[in-house]
Amino acid sequence: MVHTTMEGSLFEPTLYLVKGMCILDNDGNRILAKYYDKDVLPTAKEQKAFEKNLFNKTHRANAEIIMLEGLTCVYKSNVDLFFYVMGSSHENELILQSVLNALYESVSILLRRNVERRVLLDNLDAVMLAFDEICDGGVILDSDPTSIVGRAALRTEDVPLGEQTVAQVLQSAKEQLKWSLLK
């Protein structure tokens, strides 16, 4: 199926819904960020400039959505952290909002409801895994915080095989098989 825009040019259908996700501190500095579209903000310098601009436009606002530099950005703040999910200008805001909620709730569960910069930095590995469990290459994989945290926790716990229960071994094998089939 081929879609056309109002101008008549063609574009391919895509599953790439998310252009990027990031977490900034209360000074607008990057704590964690992933960008999935190489045509949008391809260099680290452009990404940091965009993040600074995004933070400056949103850190005092009460809204939850902003259009910036051709991207739809949804965001949420808590204590000293700002969570952002970016999509294209024609992306469905509700889908982006569900990704943002999955990100925030997953981080909240991982950090035991203590969502602040210091605790996040102490658990950055688990939060990075949660990013990967939510979105892969811009494609949304999951938006259920409980299952995201469950898979992220499985990957961070690296318990020796001899110390795992049969259920843990089977669950780990099931997850590995699922991911090998998805690649």
Explain this structure.
Mean pLDDT is 85; it is low at 1-6. This protein has 6 helices and 9 strands, in the order ββββαβββαααββαα. It starts with a strand and ends with a helix. The chain has a single domain, classed as Beta-Lactamase, CATH 3.30.450.60. It has a 5-stranded antiparallel beta sheet with strand order 4-3-7-6-5, sandwiched between helices. A two-stranded antiparallel ribbon has the order 1-2. The protein is α+β, with helices and mostly antiparallel strands. The protein is globular and about 50 Å long. A hairpin with a 2-residue loop joins strand 5 and strand 6 (71-78).
Protein topology:
Layout (H helix, E strand, L loop, with lengths): L2 E2 L5 E2 L8 E6 L4 E6 L8 H15 L6 E4 L2 E8 L2 E8 L4 H18 L6 H6 L1 H11 E2 L2 E2 L4 H13 L8 H17 L1
Antiparallel strand pairs: 1-2, 3-4, 3-7, 5-6, 6-7, 8-9
Helix pairs in contact: 2-4, 2-5, 4-5
What proportion of the residues is helical, as a percent range? 40-55%
CATH class: Alpha Beta
Reading the helices and strands in chain order gives: EEEEHEEEHHHEEHH
Number of helices: 6
The third-level CATH topology is Beta-Lactamase
User: How many structurally independent domains?
Assistant: 1
| Major sheet: arrangement of strands | 4-3-7-6-5
Task: Please tell me how large the radius of gyration is.
Answer: 18 Å
Strand content: 15-25%
The main β sheet shows up as:
5 strands, antiparallel
Which overall shape is indicated by the principal axes computed on the Cα atoms?
globular
The residue-averaged pLDDT reads 85
End-to-end C-alpha gap = 24 Å
The structural class is: alpha+beta
Assigned CATH architecture: 2-Layer Sandwich
